[in-house]
């Protein structure tokens, strides 16, 4: 490989949430962190070069994007997903969760129902509750090691609760599903039928494993585009989360107007200049790096798969179709959730994300981030093995 993903990069004492805040967040000092969704790899060299060049310029005033920024986005989404975007659709925000909250406030009123599909990325439920909306859950169905959607329950929940907005996670975090065209079509048709607006979180779109293809929800059918806010960002793909940049696409003029008005009410205007620089560089010259990264992650997944099969068969891998966040089923150990957390944190010395964080259906699960050097993953799995063997 041209890029060295095996390199161990010391992230301690760098103000890293992942590495420097264990005790502040209730974990013992020294735990090995494989939790929050950032990677232990440097961003592509061309992105670093662009940021260094901007730093040397030395002026970090108010900034915005010109046409070259959109041109880079247009090329990326067309070449990667065969999706044609238009300049007027673009609204830049500091993050996807920020955009989800803004959409919620712009398009629903306090007390209105918002539907999510748990177990799912925990800021979804937090955002609904914090914004005083009614949380409605269409729980994913777990059967024979795979997750599916209960469409009958999905529509029933929409009707009974008069759901106004649905937050779609695609690819799904944490269960790793890359939704098929048939599944997305069924979701979209139901939402169209009942006048539900869809906020589609597609931040993990660039991470799919061989045999799976991400489909932009808004592009599945022309009608879906008119009810959808598509949330994207280069931050997961190129490890840029701290630079706070996301690109939100809204083709419906009325929805976009309301969304922009809510951003103005929040007091937010221009995005981070370094985020602009990094996003433009990443989408311009980061493709080769991404291809090698995905190959490396596939190797990490294979290592994890083999280790569990041969040495920890009690722990079941939920085969991911996308993302670098892997969902593990510990239920065969017969532990309750507190006992499982104690096993992971205090006996294995790891910091993972407990399944209960992700809501209904998360009991007995843990989420592990495999975007790290293989030696780190190996160490973590051996620590789990030792802890399990001592039960």
Fill in the keyword field for this structure:
single chain, 391 residues, alpha/beta, Aspartate Aminotransferase, domain 1, Aspartate Aminotransferase, domain 2, 2 domains, 7-stranded mixed sheet, 4-stranded antiparallel sheet, 15 strands, 15% strand
Q: Write the CATH architecture name of the largest domain.
A: 3-Layer(aba) Sandwich
Order of helices and strands: HEHHEHEHEEEHEHEHEHEHHHEEHEEEH
From the spread of the alpha carbons, the general shape counts as globular
Mean pLDDT over all positions: 98
CA radius of gyration is 21 Å
CATH class annotation of the largest domain: Alpha Beta
Q: Which topology of the largest domain does CATH recognise?
A: Aspartate Aminotransferase, domain 2
CATH superfamily of the largest domain: Type I PLP-dependent aspartate aminotransferase-like (Major domain)
Largest beta sheet: strand ordering: 2-10-9-8-7-3-4
Largest sheet geometry: 7 strands, mixed
Helix content: 40-55%
Number of domains: 2
Annotation field: number of helices: 14
* Secondary-structure-derived class: alpha/beta
Descriptive notes:
The protein is α/β, with parallel strands linked by helices. The chain has two domains: 17-44 and 287-389, Alpha-Beta Complex (Aspartate Aminotransferase, domain 1); 48-285, Type I PLP-dependent aspartate aminotransferase-like (Major domain) (Aspartate Aminotransferase, domain 2, 3-Layer(aba) Sandwich). It contains 14 helices and 15 strands. It has helices at 17-20, 45-57, 67-81, 96-107, 123-130, 151-161, 181-193, 222-225, 235-238, 253-265, 273-285, 287-311, 337-347, 374-389, and strands spanning 32-33, 90-93, 113-116, 134-137, 141-143, 146-148, 163-169, 197-201, 228-232, 246-249, 316-317, 325-329, 350-351, 353-354, 365-369. A seven-stranded mixed β-sheet has the order 2-10-9-8-7-3-4, sandwiched between helices. The longest helix is centred in the C-terminal third of the chain and has 25 residues, at 287-311. The two termini are 40 Å apart.
């Amino acid at each position: 490989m041209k890029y060295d993903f095996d390199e161990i990069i010391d992230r301690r004492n760098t103000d890293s949430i992942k590495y420097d805040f264990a005790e502040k967040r209730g974990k013992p000092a020294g735990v090995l962190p494989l939790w929050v969704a950032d990677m232990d790899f440097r961003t592509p060299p061309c992105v670093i070069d662009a940021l260094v060049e901007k730093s040397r310029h030395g002026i970090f005033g108010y900034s915005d994007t010109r046409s070259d920024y959109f041109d880079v986005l247009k090329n990326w989404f067309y070449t990667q997903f065969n999706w044609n975007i238009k300049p007027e659709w673009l609204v830049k925000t500091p993050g996807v969760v920020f955009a989800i909250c803004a959409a919620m406030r712009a398009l629903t009123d306090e007390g209105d129902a918002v539907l999510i599909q748990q177990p799912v990325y925990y800021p979804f439920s937090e955002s609904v509750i914090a914004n005083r909306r009614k949380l409605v859950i269409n729980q994913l169905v777990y059967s024979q090691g795979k997750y599916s959607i209960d469409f009958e329950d999905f529509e029933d929940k929409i009707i009974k609760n008069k759901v106004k907005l649905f937050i779609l996670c695609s690819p799904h975090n944490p269960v790793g599903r890359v939704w098929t065209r048939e599944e997305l079509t069924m979701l979209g048709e139901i939402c169209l039928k009942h006048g539900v607006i869809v906020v589609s979180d597609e931040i993990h779109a660039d991470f799919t494993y061989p045999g799976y293809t991400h489909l932009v929800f808004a592009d599945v059918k022309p009608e879906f585009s008119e009810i959808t806010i598509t949330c994207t960002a280069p931050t997961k793909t190129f490890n840029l989360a701290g630079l706070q940049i996301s690109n939100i696409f809204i083709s419906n003029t009325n929805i976009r107007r309301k969304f922009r008005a809510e951003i103005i009410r929040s007091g937010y205007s221009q995005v981070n200049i370094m985020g602009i620089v990094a996003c433009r560089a990443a989408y311009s010259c980061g493709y080769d790096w991404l291809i090698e990264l995905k190959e490396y992650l596939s190797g990490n997944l294979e290592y994890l798969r083999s280790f569990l099969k041969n040495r920890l068969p009690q722990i079941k891998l939920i085969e991911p179709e996308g993302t670098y966040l892997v969902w593990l089923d510990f239920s065969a150990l017969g532990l309750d959730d507190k006992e499982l957390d104690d096993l992971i944190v205090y006996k294995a010395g790891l910091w993972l994300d407990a399944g209960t964080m992700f809501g209904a259906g998360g009991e007995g699960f843990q989420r592990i981030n495999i975007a790290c050097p293989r030696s780190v993953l190996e160490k973590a799995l051996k620590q789990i093995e030792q802890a399990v063997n001592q039960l």
